[in-house]
Amino acid sequence: MQLEIGSDGKSIVAVVVFEDKATSDAKGTIQGKVWPGIVSLEAGERLAELTHEASAMLETQQHLNPDLDIDAAIANILWKEARRYRVSVTVSATDTGEGARADLFKGFDVKAPGDVKRRRAETIHIPDLRIWMEVFAQRTIQHLNAVHVHV
After folding, report:
1. How far apart are the C-alpha atoms of 12 and 74, rounded to whole Å?
2. Which residues fall within 8 angstroms of residue 2, CB to CB, at 6 or more apart?
3. What is the CA radius of gyration of the chain?
4. Distance (Å, whole) CA 86 – CA 19
5. Rounded mean pLDDT of 119-143?
6. How far is CA 80 from the centre of its chain?
7. What span, in angstroms and rounded, lies between the C-alpha atoms of 26 and 105?
8. Which residues contact 105 (CB under 8 A, 6 or more apart)?
9. What whole-number distance in Å separates Cα of residue 84 and Cα of residue 17?
10. How many other CB atoms sit within 10 Å of the CB of residue 24?
11. Which residues make Cβ contacts (< 8 Å) with residue 41, sequence separation at least 6?
12. Cys-Cys with 120: which of 37, 86, 96, 106 at CB 3.0–4.6 Å?
């Protein structure tokens, strides 16, 4: 999740719920896992979970800005238009074209209705993703060990 803070630094404009998925079946993952989660949030079924997560983030933000009104921010987050979604998914080479990518996210406007700013869809294609992730993880561990952070 991410909080979008207003230009006044005292208000929360939106909460962005991230759905980031690395998968070999992008369409199945979006339809079977992502859409049901968004629909559940939109229906108000997961508001306690959303409020709990947002509260922790807001308390941290309040340390940086004591004027932040947490109660008003929570009330704003509960308002549907203040909830936004970013869906990011790995895709195979066959899903990199514009038409194929659009097909992956077909129905997003129905799952999270309203202004288009509520919906962000992203894809990334990384050949041999699992190998890439392993190399990335090993490099990260090496770097952390070099700066004396124990993993």
Report:
1. 9
2. 15, 16, 18
3. 18
4. 6
5. 91
6. 16
7. 10
8. 30, 87, 121
9. 6
10. 11
11. 17, 47, 50, 83
12. 86
Rounded to 10 degrees, the C-alpha dihedral 16/117/103/49 comes to: 20
Among residues 51, 43, 89, which one has the least CA distance to residue 71?
A: 51
Does the pLDDT value for residue 46 go beyond 90?
A: no
**Region 15-25 average pLDDT:** 91
Residue 113: which pLDDT band, with cuts at 50, 70 and 90? very high
Higher pLDDT, 67 or 16: 16
pLDDT in tens, 47-59: 888 888 888 888 8
Q: Return the structure tokens found at 68.
A: 């932040």
* Cα 83 to Cα 85: distance, rounded to the nearest angstrom: 7
Separation between Cα atoms, residue 121 and residue 135, nearest integer Å: 27
Both structure tokens of 40? 């559940």
